[in-house]
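stage 2 :: seqdesign
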């Protein structure tokens, strides 16, 4: 069994990006610039955004953080987006989710210029990705593909079962894994909270991608021996013994499932770190105009 090391691979991706930035600087080009919009004070969102800004600094990208408190109105957020869309110095930006409930997330995402949508959440990017056209691919699924590539995981003809149909992970993951490309060419089953006999289906998975947000939901009896198990879950669970008062838990019961899997991602130290690395990659593509 091989533990897929997201820490090592994300550091590799970021080191490669830094080399690209150094080349841009050497020829007097303009350095990629990412902006992040953070509304409210959700603890997990704060730490994700902080890690995105820190990664920009490590790689040599410019970054801008736009913060408003949770009482910001939808109109105010739309105004911020309009300014970022027009700002010629900013190559790409993200609006960290979730947003406060009084803000319509679809309206916000559709207001982002698809050319600057480095999260790949805009319907135009999702549609282009589904058609196999150049598009920003949302960062977490893209990070999973990168892990599969760098560990030479065979995907062609395999049965990939995705658990969870979220717009930002499960749905794009299922589309990407069926494409005629590597990683891809899988037979894909997309399962969700209404799926009947889930265990019968997960037991057929050669590649099991779990993105449900339910800590330790996948147990060893649900996994086929030799399966590749990708755990996208990242939930904060109260734990007084930890310095920050919580532990990060994945959707897979790692200790028992790792005994059956051929490859498995740990939490933390797996997919989560790749999300940030992929966002950085998309920002570089945006600055070079390589998608649009
Ligand atoms: N919330 C959870 N994951 C993500 C992500 O990848 N991007 C944004 N913008 N918000 C998120």
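stage 2 :: out
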């Amino acid at each position: 069994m091989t533990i897929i090391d997201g820490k090592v691979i994300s550091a590799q991706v970021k080191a490669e990006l830094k080399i690209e930035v150094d080349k841009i600087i050497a020829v007097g080009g303009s350095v990629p610039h990412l902006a992040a919009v953070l509304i409210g004070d959700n603890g997990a969102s704060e730490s994700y955004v902080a890690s995105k800004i820190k990664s920009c600094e490590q790689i040599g990208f410019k970054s801008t953080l736009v913060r408003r408190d949770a009482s910001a109105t939808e109109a105010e957020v739309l105004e911020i987006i309009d300014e970022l869309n027009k700002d010629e110095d900013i190559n790409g930006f993200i609006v960290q989710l979730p947003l406060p409930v009084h803000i319509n997330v679809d309206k916000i995402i559709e207001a982002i210029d698809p050319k600057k949508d480095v999260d790949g959440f805009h319907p135009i990017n999702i549609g282009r990705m589904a058609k196999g056209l150049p598009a920003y691919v949302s960062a977490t699924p893209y990070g999973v593909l990168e892990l599969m590539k760098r560990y030479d995981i065979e995907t062609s003809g395999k049965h990939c079962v995705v658990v969870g149909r979220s717009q930002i992970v499960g749905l794009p993951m299922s589309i990407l894994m069926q494409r005629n490309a590597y990683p891809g060419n899988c037979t894909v089953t997309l399962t969700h909270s209404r799926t009947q006999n889930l265990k019968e289906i997960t037991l057929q998975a050669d590649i099991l991608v779990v993105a449900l947000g339910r800590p330790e939901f996948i147990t060893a009896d649900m996994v086929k021996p030799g399966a590749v198990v990708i755990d996208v879950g990242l939930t904060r669970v109260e734990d007084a013994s930890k310095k920050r008062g919580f532990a990060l838990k994945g959707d897979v019961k790692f200790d028992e499932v790792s005994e059956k899997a051929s490859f498995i991602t740990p939490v933390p130290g797996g997919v989560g770190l790749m999300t940030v690395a992929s966002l950085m990659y998309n920002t570089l593509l945006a600055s070079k105009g390589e998608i649009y």
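stage 3 :: structure notes
- The pocket of guanine is lined by residues 94-97, 119, 139-140, 168, 275 (CB under 6 Å).
- The first helix runs from residue 6 to 26.
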